[in-house]
Amino acid sequence: METIKVDILNPKARKLLKNLADLNLISIRKSTNKSFSEVVEKLRSTSGNGPDEDEIAKEVEKARTERYRK
Asked: What's the pTM?
């Protein structure tokens, strides 16, 4: 199986692709790939308040303790 990305410029092409899918010649699935800027924007919009320096320091010490315990 070969996968390609197609940019549809004319709405008639979408209908042709749908017909090919109905004949089980191709399968159509929505792309879930997001651009880097979309991912960054989503992270920024949902991040709220980040951790303060004390919380970061505690997590770093916790990770170091676990690493050196081994």
From this structure: 0.43
